[in-house]
Amino acid sequence: MEATLCSIPSSKPPPLSLRPQTLTLRSPSIINSKPRRRALPVVRAAISRTKKEETVENVKQQLESCYLVAGIRYTGFTVKQFQELRGALPETVNLVVAKNTLVGKAIEGTPWEALKPCMKGMNAWLFVHTEEIPAALKPYRTFQKERKLEENDFTGAVFEGRFYAPDEFKVLETLPSREEIYAKLLGALQGPAISLVGTLQAPARDLVLTLKAYVQKLEEEQSSGGATGTA
């Protein structure tokens, strides 16, 4: 019987080729093909400029119908203290934190430009929208004493176009109220002539305030009387 031999394929791996292989290197531009992000400093600068413009505009709005602007040194204030102070102020007084340069830009060319002597250090600004100046300043004095913030004093103020240094604030904090002016004027008019002479000899500022209040009172009475007569 004849045996048939079948060829069995060899399981050995093919011999290694000794030919040098060619490697294909990718170009660096292809490897780093991710799109580059736009530089952030340009965006940040635009945002910062917008915020500065908004701050200047806000200060200008606060200056409208404003009777007094005062600076407060706020170095060391916490966010909580600012919140507490804002809550203690009357509705006629607004507290704004702004850089001196921005406030200086807002007051440029206005009567409030007299505020520049206190443009040093870190200031918060009180915008008083009432004629009752002592009542507007008192809440901060109380806050200052209760929190023992002696170093955080007023840095200056402008009232009726004049700058008041920190050591002159007693003048502002003791101005007569509207009721006191009325009482003083009526007492002078109803009393003997010597009382009127004493009023006329008072400081010019008190006299102007007194006469202004009296004229306003007469105008209100005339206006009220005219309205009654036409009814």
Task: Please explain how this structure is put together.
This protein is globular. It has helices at residues 28-31, 40-63, 79-88, 100-107, 133-146, 169-173, 178-190, 193-200, 204-230, and strands at 68-73, 93-97, 123-128, 154-159, 162-164. Mean pLDDT is 77; it is low at 1-6 and 227-231. The protein is built from nine helices and five strands; from the N terminus they run H-H-E-H-E-H-E-H-E-E-H-H-H-H. The protein has a five-stranded antiparallel beta sheet, with helices on one face. The chain has two domains: 46-173, Ribosomal protein L10, N-terminal RNA-binding domain (Alpha-Beta Plaits, 2-Layer Sandwich), CATH 3.30.70.1730; 178-222. The longest helix has 27 residues, at 204-230. The protein is α+β, with helices and mostly antiparallel strands. Keywords: Chloroplast, Plastid, Ribonucleoprotein, Ribosomal protein, RNA-binding, rRNA-binding, Transit peptide. Belongs to the universal ribosomal protein uL10 family. GO terms for molecular function: rRNA binding. InterPro entries: Ribosomal_uL10 (IPR001790), Ribosomal_uL10-like_sf (IPR043141), Ribosomal_uL10_bac (IPR022973), Ribosomal_uL10_bac_type (IPR047865). It is found in: Plastid, Chloroplast.
